[in-house]
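User: Let's play a game. I give you a shape written as tokens, and you guess the letters that built it. Ready? Here's round one.
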């Protein structure tokens, strides 16, 4: 029996326990953005460290940062010539609101049909477990053929704010040939995917102030510029009719798509119909001259993530609000930077904000856009592993999401990320009823198991 086969048999024999351990992990509400969950975030870090101990990793540490801690562990017992692969993950999750739309408790994972429902099941505790459990299977059977280092952070969902500092201060500890990052998902259950680019992010809070207190809308309406209205007028001007972003200089550094790149996007098995069915919208929107896959993978965007102003309770209240607030973020592509985007947003507001209101722009968090090497030995090892399990070559594509670590590892460690994952586009990530497609998850564990044997 081949070495890989011994480990794969172990995976199959332990699948149920793997799932029950994943449920334990998902029970910890490690919401990184909420102060009230700080203790839970710490508990999740401890849970990951305990897993690393249980699979015989060395030098396991919960390493503090100015924010949430990073969990580190390593096994460096392979031969000198074997590569060192970092395995990346994040143990933090997004908030769960609106709670009333969840069919079951977000932190009590339940199986319904082929899916496991819980916050973080797909993004990305399930993926962290897939890596841990593939390595467990190898450690318990043949032993690891390569060296590995674990980097599991707790701030990915808030822009990996302190990870740059951490990586910079621990370059030696983290030195590796490349980084396996299963946080990028796949296009569909029969479409194994290697992601070759991610968008960056620049996230702002925009506040508009009018009168110094809420006013009677009958006494003052018509003489005072309503801040809610002023805010949406500003927001309305941030796009033109064709979905183009109107911040000054926004597209200056955006790389043009080559004919070849366009042909590659065209070949992806994705249809407008599927997108409409998945999201429930009546029709698609966006720059008409680009394909949907190009608009999410290779074009920058600006989104309103949330709006707040005035009276939103039950019934009515005739009020002219004192202020209005919007959360706005831009997805960026190479070679845009979050710093320049902040300046462009400021310039737009300076130019367009009326004299009738005051405004304030706060920078919340940033992530760089990345393109990764699609020909490395690591990518080849992964492509072979995906093929072994799915029986077909993986698709290569650029994705619209952001992962802060990718650029930081390129910059400070010189390690390129191999981006993949077993989350699906309809897993409801960041939404109510997040779920994990279990048949795909089990395949993912098998694929990662293959991966580690593919370096000889
Ligand atoms: N797993 C996602 C990123 C992702 C999604 C990559 C889809 C590829 C395809 C990750 O956990 C995430 O949601 N990241 C945040 C980062 C942000 C807060 C800086 C994102 O993209 O919104
Ligand atoms: Mn996420």
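Assistant: Ready! My guess for every position:
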């Amino acid at each position: 029996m081949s070495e890989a086969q011994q480990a794969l048999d172990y995976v199959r024999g332990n699948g149920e326990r793997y799932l029950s351990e994943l449920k334990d992990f998902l029970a910890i509400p490690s919401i990184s953005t909420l102060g009230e969950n700080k203790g839970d975030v710490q508990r999740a870090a401890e849970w990951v460290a305990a897993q690393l101990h249980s699979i015989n990793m060395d030098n396991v540490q919960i390493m503090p940062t100015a924010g949430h801690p990073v969990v580190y562990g390593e096994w460096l017992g392979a031969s000198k010539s074997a590569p060192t692969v970092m395995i990346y993950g994040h143990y933090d999750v997004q908030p769960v609101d609106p709670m009333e739309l969840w069919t079951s408790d977000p932190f009590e994972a339940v199986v319904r049909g082929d899916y496991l429902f819980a916050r973080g099941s797909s993004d990305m505790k399930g993926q962290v477990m897939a890596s841990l459990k593939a390595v467990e299977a190898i450690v318990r059977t043949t032993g690891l053929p390569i060296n590995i280092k674990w980097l599991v952070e707790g701030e990915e969902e808030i822009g990996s704010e302190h990870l740059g500092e951490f990586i910079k201060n621990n370059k030696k500890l983290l030195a590796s040939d490349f980084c396996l990052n299963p946080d990028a998902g796949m296009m569909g259950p029969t479409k194994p995917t290697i992601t070759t680019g991610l968008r960056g992010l620049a996230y702002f809070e925009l506040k508009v102030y009018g009168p110094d207190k809420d006013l009677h809308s009958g006494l003052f309406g018509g003489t005072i510029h309503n801040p809610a209205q002023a805010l949406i007028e500003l927001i309305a001007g941030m796009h033109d009719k064709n979905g183009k972003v109107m911040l000054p200089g926004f597209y200056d550094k955006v790389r043009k798509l080559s004919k070849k790149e366009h042909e590659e996007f065209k070949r992806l098995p994705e249809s407008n119909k599927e997108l409409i069915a998945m999201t429930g919208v009546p029709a698609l929107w966006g720059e008409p001259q680009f394909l949907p896959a190009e608009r999410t993978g290779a074009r920058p965007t600006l989104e309103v993530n949330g709006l707040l102003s005035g009276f939103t309770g039950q019934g009515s209240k005739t009020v002219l609000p004192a202020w209005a607030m919007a959360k706005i973020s831009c997805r960026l592509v190479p070679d845009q930077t979050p710093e320049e985007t902040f300046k462009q947003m400021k310039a737009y507001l300076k130019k367009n904000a009326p004299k009738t209101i005051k405004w304030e722009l706060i920078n919340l968090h940033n992530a760089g856009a990345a393109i990764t090497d699609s020909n490395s030995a690591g990518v080849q090892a992964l492509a072979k592993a995906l093929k072994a399990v799915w029986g077909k070559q993986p698709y290569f594509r650029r994705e619209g999401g952001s992962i802060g670590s990718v650029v930081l590892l390129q910059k400070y460690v010189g390690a390129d990320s191999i981006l993949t994952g077993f989350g699906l586009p309809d897993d409801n990530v960041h939404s109510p009823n997040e779920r994990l497609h279990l048949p795909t998850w089990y395949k993912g564990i098998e694929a990662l198991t293959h991966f580690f044997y593919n370096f000889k």
